[in-house]
Design the sequence.
């Protein structure tokens, strides 16, 4: 930040970092990261703590039917609301910045605006969306917020049973599916996030302004063969579902390395049944995702993936079932918001660059009902979804100040 | 069986089939098989029922430190014992014949000999060995019986914790490791089993006399890479442990299809961590086994497997750990016992053939301390480790009668 910054309103950096560090103690892992899958005890504890901190700041806390936790700085007479935030859940054994950074910055911005006495033209809401990491259902919280989360998806989550997960939390699936807001009440959504990639750090740029967010599709592919004795059954007549899963995983990567280098993909698990070495696998379930710059490329890649899977099933005499498990459409960020973010960075003396996001964010869900934008800060080493995920204190402060000034410039009184 | 059979002692076929059917009700699955992994509630119930049936027949039941269940027909003055039997545990969702058939036939042979009043030259023991299917530890029961089961293996089982598995069963690991018998007390071990392959059924042969049993080795291979965001990390810099596991599985099969067609192998599970699609897998554990006709071939195959695994680890920038998880050495069956089995079959008018066993059996463990032999009956379709596993009633009766007459001819008074 330049010297000029001392003359402009900035966040309370000590309070911000102290809160960030406290938050990182919920679900802290030995490796220095956090383990806070949605609805886990540590996730719930982190959310309760966030709500308490917001109440201590005199903000109005609300928990909606999808367990989205929000804090509101209400402006008398204002009819509309600007939402800023991210999510407090993490991937299993993830890092402490992903999502958490954006929520803590949002809370700090609300506190700072309140303390400054500046009257905004809109209400300001800091939000912690539920299950952004899609442990149970893709973007559960933001999709519920937008009213675009079918009950059927909640009834068939990826992991376990949703009803078990939310038992004792005062939630129910029907309420989750029915807590959509009226888009007319919102003027926009801003999300501050770590980049999770190496571009900013490698180019020594302070701020990334996201132009577009990749699309993502999750699928489960199940190969079914025949359980057989793994000693006595000749190799050439086995119908080995596990071999199908392995060959598919290799083929998916070949596809991404040749014809789809603008896309990425990942197999998260291969679950073989019955799962013992002395039985040829009867069934193999492969959970995977792929991401693409636009929906046309997504369609093309999906077609090729299915084609490869079918060839493999045929080659190993297996049956094949291909089930979509969720998706987020690729999205464009709002040009007006992007311009305001860029001006805020410039005023703070920070370098900024427009960029594409290879990570999915609640912002792309929110963009369906309101103008949205994501602001990035540099990730050291580009590492994320890993306990080693790290952004410097200065970069985090810079990002929070850009968020603050985007709010002030765009929605000042 | 030929007409001549009516003039010789045979099993009580109705009692035998009724007992076999009752046994199949313990852990019965909807698909018609059984699910009785070692120490499961259904396995324990099946063993208690077996012991009760033996006691009802006036036999002396014993449960040793490894939970091997045996029934003894003691002969006054006899110092040595002939052991016949197999195992009552199954693979997960397995068939009802594997192991169970041999135990039920052994019980029936003891009953029939007792009822006939024929005095053998040795005590006759029907045994149900613990965990032949190696759910916790390879051939736990027979290896404990032979005194060749190190405590360390019991302390590091494949599945869960052994101490949890045996809680409440009056067992402890030290007693398990220390219940080896004195080989001098035994004259031999005979095991009647389904073939689990297609050779007998395809050649319309009644009885298989096993000459040799394959060797088997179990290994766990762990690839370690780096957890990374599955959206933002460029494909070419990912250190994807799951991709290593998949490529290894494909490579193992290529090896078996080219240079090692006399061997077989199988990957039972690939467990990826953290196991979610939006994180590149940091770790992948591959549990697999391979089987070979003799130890030299086993050594050669193991060397090649390790070589392939190392190449894959290098290619994907992964670390590699290779852990032996157990083994059974290849074994020759006793020529004298094989001859007696062949004579018994001929006397009963049954066709018989000498053969190799691609499946592992407790007999190969027992062969280290006493002469051993395995007798096969045909498996319909060669299917095993599958609920569809099936052998006809007539073939099962034939096998039991061959076992009975092998006992009578070889160890008659």
Sequence:
């Amino acid at each position: 930040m330049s010297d000029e910054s001392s003359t402009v309103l900035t966040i309370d950096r000590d309070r911000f970092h102290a809160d960030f560090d406290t938050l990182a103690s919920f679900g802290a892992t030995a490796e220095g990261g956090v383990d806070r899958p949605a609805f886990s005890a540590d996730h719930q504890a982190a959310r309760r703590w966030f709500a308490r901190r917001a109440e201590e700041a005199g903000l109005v806390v609300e928990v909606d039917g999808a367990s989205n936790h929000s804090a509101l700085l209400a402006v008398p007479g204002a009819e509309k609301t600007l939402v800023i935030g991210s999510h407090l859940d993490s991937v299993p054994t993830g890092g402490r910045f992903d999502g958490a950074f954006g929520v803590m910055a949002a809370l700090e911005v609300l506190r700072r605006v309140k303390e400054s006495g500046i009257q905004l033209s809109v209400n300001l809401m800091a939000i912690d969306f539920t299950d952004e990491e899609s442990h149970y259902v893709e973007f559960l919280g933001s999709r519920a917020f937008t009213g675009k989360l079918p009950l059927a998806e909640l009834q068939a989550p990826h992991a376990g049973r949703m009803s078990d997960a939310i038992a004792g939390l005062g939630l129910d699936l029907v309420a989750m599916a029915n807590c959509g807001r009226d888009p007319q009440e919102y003027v926009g959504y801003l999300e501050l996030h770590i980049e999770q990639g190496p571009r900013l750090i490698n180019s020594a740029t302070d701020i990334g302004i996201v132009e577009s967010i990749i699309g993502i599709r999750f699928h489960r592919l199940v190969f079914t063969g025949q359980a057989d004795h793994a000693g006595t059954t000749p190799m050439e007549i086995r119908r080995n579902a596990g071999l199908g899963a392995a060959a598919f995983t290799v083929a998916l990567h070949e596809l991404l390395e040749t014809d789809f280098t603008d896309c990425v993909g990942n197999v998260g698990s291969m679950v073989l049944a019955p799962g013992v070495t002395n039985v040829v696998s009867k069934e193999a379930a492969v959970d995977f995702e792929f991401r693409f710059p636009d929906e046309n490329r997504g369609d093309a890649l999906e077609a090729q993936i299915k084609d490869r899977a079918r060839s493999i099933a045929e080659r190993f005499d297996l049956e094949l079932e291909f089930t979509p498990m969720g998706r987020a459409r690729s999205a464009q960020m709002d040009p007006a918001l992007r311009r305001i973010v860029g001006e805020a960075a410039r005023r703070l003396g920070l370098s900024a660059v427009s960029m594409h996001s290879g990570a999915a964010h609640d912002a792309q869900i929110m963009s369906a009902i309101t103008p949205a934008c994501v602001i990035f800060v540099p990730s050291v080493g580009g590492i994320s979804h890993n306990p080693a995920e790290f952004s410097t204190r200065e970069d985090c402060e810079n990002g929070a100040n850009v968020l603050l000034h985007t709010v002030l410039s765009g929605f000042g009184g």
Q: What stands out?
A: Chain B has two domains: 3-214+330-411, 216-327. Residues 1-6 of chain B have pLDDT under 50 and may be disordered.
